[in-house]
Amino acid sequence: MKANKKALLFFILPFGLLFAAFYLAPIGYAIKQSLYQVERKGTFGKAQEVFGGLAQYQRVFTDGPFWESIGRVLLFGVVQVPVMLGLALALALLLDSGLVKGRRFFRLAFFVPYAIPGVVAAIMWGFLYSPNLSPFTAVTSAADLLSADLVLWSMANVVTWVYVGYNMLIIYSSLLAIPQEVYEAAKIDGAGALRTAWSIKIPLVMPAIVLTTVFSIIGTLQLLAEPAVFRTFSSAVSSTYTPNLTVYSTSSIPNFNLAAAFSVVLAMATCLLSFAFLKLTQRGGDK
């Protein structure tokens, strides 16, 4: 029994140390920093960090641009996440259907955009959207894709292009785990390809779809690379366009204490939304 406990500790300890060092410790440090504020004695006095209690959080909850950015990314997620996961599901079902030849090639081709760093992808698409730089001048002259009305959806297109293949692989892996006996039984019952996909495949890969949705919710609230790059292409993207960009801009002032408070509130909002979605899907599954 003692030997089993030692073996268990041997395998868990490395993960526990890394988890504490790179996850719990930064969270604790951010919470600590958010409880302090910088004060000066006089105009040119030396800056001192003093305990401020919840003063930074009061500033966060009364900061209009920050909550506007929260609403902006929520709108982004409500539209972009279903489109992205719908495309990922459709591509996964297509690869699993047997109608496509060269599955290995298409799996790799769909995944390649995810291998491109987000900043590089945003720069590439920024050039394509720019009226003065894009080779598709007929499109960019007809619609200003970097305007205040369209820039959010231009960024949504970039995120969709990057992450469709990633989510497709997760769903496709789940499809490969379905026993062949299930398909054989469906064929005996007279189910066609569409009926099999709708009544068997999609319900059985629903846990993978829920997982990718949670990842997408977290990623939506953490949107940073695309708006940071698009600020160089469009004046419609401000320093507080998304919550993470607000945190980055605030820390660049620098005001690390307020940035930490923004980060803590954003992390709590992300956890609450993810938890609420999981509870909603579990309740729907119980029915």
From TrEMBL:
Residues 70-277 form the ABC transmembrane type-1 domain. The keyword Transmembrane applies. It is found in: Cell membrane. It is a multi-pass membrane protein. SUPFAM superfamilies: MetI-like. Its main location: membrane. One of its GO terms (cellular component) is plasma membrane. Pfam families: BPD_transp_1. Keywords: Cell membrane, Membrane, Transmembrane, Transmembrane helix, Transport. The keyword Hydrolase does not apply. Belongs to the binding-protein-dependent transport system permease family. This is ABC transporter permease.
